[in-house]
């Protein structure tokens, strides 16, 4: 990743910092990333970096805000044009997989924040992201049930948890393999199995 020009507007510099952190997180434990490494990767001094962020926590918070906005926007765009609620669920599943393939540092950062032993702003941001994600799924499951696309006896809460858990399982496999593209390859097959378990029987 080539360092950006030294003089940039503040919002551009902040976005470049966020993207740099996500890139570094794909290479190593996010908790071990230092502001020195971030600045060096960007071709800046730490002083220049801290003109835009008061400390490392502020940088991580900016990353979480970026992740939330980008991921939810991608999920919304994927599901918006789907032909049915069930098709929208599949579109969301594949869009999430694609987002992780494009930004493999993101799940590393999310897992790192959720593993913190105490409450923090960033941990709450991740929890809020998951809550918004579940709300979107709830709406689609309710719509799919109303159209009788799903098994009438389906436990929707469990189905939502399994949806998220299946994505997370694919994420873990891609991290273990060291190849983020495996999630994009495996997601359609995983959803096909998942779909057979939730859809209405003919």
List unreliable stretches of 5+ residues. 1-5
Principal-axis shape equals: elongated
Query: How many angstroms separate the termini?
Result: 52 Å
Structural class: mainly alpha
Radius of gyration: 19 Å
**Helix and strand element order:** HHHHHHHHH
Main pleated-sheet profile: none
β-strand amount: under 5%
Instruction: Tell me the total number of β-strands.
Output: 0
The whole-number mean of residue pLDDT values reads 91
List the total number of helices: 9
Helix proportion of residues, in percent? over 70%
List the helices and strands and how they pair.
Layout: H1 10-25, H2 35-42, H3 46-49, H4 56-80, H5 85-102, H6 105-114, H7 121-146, H8 156-177, H9 181-198
Helix pairs in contact: 1-2, 1-4, 1-6, 4-5, 4-7, 5-7, 5-8, 5-9, 7-8, 8-9
What does this structure look like?
This protein has 202 residues and is mainly alpha-helical. Helices cover 73% and strands 0% of the residues. The protein has nine helices and no strands. The chain has helices spanning 10-25, 35-42, 46-49, 56-80, 85-102, 105-114, 121-146, 156-177, 181-198. α5 packs antiparallel against α7, α5 (85-102) runs parallel beside α8 (156-177) and α7 (121-146) packs across α8 (156-177). Residues 1-5 have low confidence and may be disordered.
